[in-house]
Specification:
With about 425 residues, the chain is of the alpha+beta class. Helices cover about 30% and strands about 20% of the residues. The strands form 4 sheets. Strands 3, 4, 5, 6, 7 and 8 form a 6-stranded antiparallel β-sheet that branches. The termini are far apart. The N terminus and C terminus are likely disordered.
Length: about 425
């Protein structure tokens, strides 16, 4: 009824818009645009051949989608279910069976690891298993998104998986879908390399990332690490606050993390976001290296830019993705939501990132023909320079990071010896 009332008001404006000559130009433009929109809305609703496709709800929803799609690649509309899933993912939770998976085109879905305490772990699904079918549908021809959509669903419903482990016979298992809390740092993404180098792989920046990072650091510190590698490769970003939390653990308090500008700020003034003092801070004397690539985006670039510009870390890999816009998710009255770009940001040295990315300090490129198998290997064997498996590739960026951290520290330059001044003669 609200939509119909809105349309009626707009149609009234269509006939009365010329009476608004005394209103400001911007008001007139708004009235004319609303009137045109209402006219088209009513025409489609009344005359389109398939009336079930021309309900007010469907037309308004389609209009909202069209408006948002025309703005930029990161602005968009989320249905009620999509919005619920976004909230779960950004909160570090999803509905599923608790599998971390990988997908290569035209091959079955591969299990990297089951999550601790999940239905998948309880069912005994092992790392390296293949999910041949989901509810009877073969996974090989499907995309990763299509596979995940089949596995995920409403809590307490069931999904059937056809599983095969190595040379064993395939078997079917029925698993209950549950609310699964997933870490942004996978269990197999925390390890010690070469005796005393800590390695942490961050998959996404969610509301749990800082806590996951703290746990990982504590675990590595107990093993006596002297330096740290943070792997941001293939990390698409996530929550801005999460990147700020991590930067604050690695930078001195009040260090600039980024500059932002938006129409929401007073007089469109630029805002400076700085690091805060925290008891979780890491010793500033511990060397840090970041691993980045062309799929490191958004919050990953915020963290990388902050640490690089503040001379806190050296980055190795390839130029990052180049997304320097901030999105706000605004829930609508019906439970759906819009994702709206509201700001842009610059690094502490005011380098632009949007469309450009961040160049690493040391460039190590993965050959184009090797990228897909390398990304698959990275997901399964993070923190391992060359896995002991057939056709394994060398992680050249990781090898370079270890090489840099193993270099002996430069000897301090000796201070120049001051020449003794000749003794002054006493005056008579």
């Amino acid at each position: 009824m609200r939509l119909i009332l809105f349309a009626t008001i707009c149609l009234t404006l269509l006939t009365g818009v010329h009476a608004e000559e005394e209103a400001g130009g911007e008001d007139q433009a708004r009235y004319r645009a609303l009137a045109t929109f209402a006219s088209v809305l009513q025409m489609i609703h009344d005359r389109y051949i398939d009336s079930d496709k021309a309900t007010y709800d469907r037309l308004i929803q389609a209009a909202i989608k069209g408006m948002l799609q025309d703005l930029d690649n990161y602005t968009g509309y989320e249905s009620i279910e999509q919005h619920k899933e976004s909230i779960r993912v950004l909160g570090g939770e999803t509905v599923g069976v608790g599998l971390v998976v990988n997908k290569i085109s035209n091959t079955p879905l591969e299990v990297i690891t089951p999550l601790e305490g999940s239905p998948a772990e309880a069912a005994g699904i092992r790392p390296g298993s293949l999910i041949l079918e989901i509810n009877g549908e073969k996974t090989a021809p499907l995309s990763m998104r299509e596979c995940l959509k089949l596995i995920q669903g409403k809590p307490d419903t069931k999904v059937k998986l056809m599983v095969k482990y190595k040379e064993d016979a395939s078997y079917e298992v029925s698993l209950p879908r549950k609310n699964i809390a997933f870490g942004s740092i996978p269990p197999h993404g925390v390890k010690v390399i070469d005796g005393d180098i800590g390695y942490i792989r961050i998959m996404v920046f969610s509301s749990h990332t800082a806590a996951d990072f703290d746990r990982a650091v504590r675990k590595l510190q107990k093993q006596g690490i002297k330096s740290l590698i943070i792997d941001l490769r293939n990390n698409p970003g996530g929550l801005l606050n999460s990147a700020v939390d991590l930067a604050s653990r690695l930078l001195k308090p009040d260090s600039v993390i980024l500059y932002t500008s938006s129409r929401d700020s007073e007089d469109h003034k630029e805002e400076t976001i700085t690091s805060y003092k925290t008891a979780k801070a890491i010793d500033f004397g511990i060397p840090v290296i970041l691993l980045v690539n062309s799929l490191s985006a958004s919050a990953s670039e915020i963290l990388a830019g902050a640490l690089m510009d503040n001379k806190r870390a050296v980055s190795i890999g390839s130029r990052t993705f180049g997304k320097a816009t901030v999105q706000n998710i605004q829930e609508l009255p019906d439970g759906s939501a819009i994702r709206l770009t509201i700001g842009r940001y610059l690094t502490p040295s005011r380098k632009p990132i949007q469309g450009l990315g961040i160049a690493p300090n040391i460039t190590v490129e993965v050959p184009h023909a090797e990228r897909i198998p390398f990304y698959s290997q990275l997901a399964i064997y993070p923190g391992i320079i060359k896995p002991d498996t057939p056709n394994a590739l060398t992680d050249e960026a990781l090898a370079k990071a270890v090489e840099q951290l193993k270099k002996p520290a430069p000897a301090p330059k000796p201070k120049p010896v001051e020449k003794a001044k000749p003794a002054e003669k006493e005056k008579a």
